[in-house]
Amino acid sequence: MKNEFLEKFINFLKNEGFIFQSNEIYGGVSGFYDFGPLGSLMKLNIKNLWLKDVVFSEKNVFLIDTSLINPKVVFEASGHLENFFDILIECKNCHLRFKKEEGEKCPDCGSSNLTKPRKFNLMFQTKIGSTGKIDGFLRPETAQGVFVNFLNVLNSTRTKLPFGIANIGKSFRNEINPRNFIFRLREFEQMELEFFTKPQEADFWFNYWLEKRYNWYLSLGIKKENIKKVEIPKSELPHYSKRNVDLHYNFPFGFQEIEGLANRGDYDLKRHSEFSGKSLTYYDQKEKESYFPYVIEPSAGIERLVFAFLVDAFDEDEVDGKKRFVLRLNPKIAPIKFAVLPLLSNRKEIVRLAQDIYDNLRKEFICVYDENGSIGRRYRRQDEIGTPWCITVDFESLEKKDVTVRDRDSTKQERIKIEELEEFFLNKLK
Ligand code: ATP
After folding, report:
1. Are 292 and 359 in a shared domain?
2. What was the pLDDT predicted at 1?
3. How many structural domains comprise the chain?
4. DSSP 251
5. How far apart are CA 298 and CA 203, in angstroms?
6. What DSSP character marks residue 162?
7. Pocket test for ligand 1, best of 22, 33, 190 (most atoms within 8 A of CB)
8. What is the reported pLDDT for 2?
9. CATH number for position 151
């Protein structure tokens, strides 16, 4: 099914330098996308904001960074080898392969002439080393890197329960039918927290993280009507989970998961203890006993977040009788914080002052300088890529040592002293 808005949007994001199909000059492979000059900045901002929420604003959460390729035993222990599959069906007419849950007919040609459903494991496999004797797998989630390092972190930080270990990085899933732009990818980035608690406190921490993560989206401008919590019925829980609540966002193709919260119980630590022969228990000095902590896991995919923030911010309105295309991104997420614009590009003094201001401020902020075209067109260019402010240097600036700062959303302008600009933006971005 064609989605006209989505097609227009994908084109727009490509033209502006947000997101490109990977290896497009060779025709590309579905499920792989690259991030351009603006998209990669946005990704970085989202990661930093997640880190602030989940790691740095917490007393007892540690960040680690773990291997992408892991030996087979890790995924035998985690249950991925046995359980991490989709049910695949092939259309005998057009040979499209799709997931059973996508329907009883081929989603492309509509044929009912289909193969029998069969299991398809979603992990990418590789061989490690020159002899090729070691079976390796690209990780399908960042979480296992945390569990295999549980003892290392516990011993090196000497921390006590409850505490968390966060891991950010690429994950790989050989999705059968990657679709919907960057929603379902074969290579993507995850931001995961494994928060270890006493078993009897797991419910409390589940709710704590659910609320914290939900409010994070609202605080960054996601519209309340576009995000909802969805409790997963017991019968549909993954093999490791005691409870799951997903956060769903209203994408152009309907509400779909952007982040999942799970109570993984003691499944992972127990299994890794069993398979490694190392005891991954926690010694509780107060209770004088050892036990397996429970794990609460908020898990988000960065690309789905980028997608949601972009869709949510997209707007069209009219300014001075002209249609305007605007990305109302939260300033903290916007790739470029402001543009410095000389009102007239043929007046040397104005251009020089604007360039001086730009040279000074770009040491602290991601910003751009633009002197091409009419001022109205330059404003609109910035509106389109979500730049929250434009600094305009005019004749008065030469005398009064001030500039106008235009707000993207209200289009209102205020005069600010040049020497106060840095503080002005630092405050806005706090
Ligand atoms: P889905 O049901 O959509 O396949 P999932 O339930 O398998 O997702 P989880 O295993 O809970 O996903 O992964 C946690 C998060 O990782 C998801 O909320 C999503 O943001 C992200 N994610 C998972 N699979 C993909 C993918 N193929 N492409 C992009 N992001 C993904």
Report:
1. no
2. 46
3. 2
4. E
5. 14
6. S
7. 190
8. 61
9. 3.30.930.10
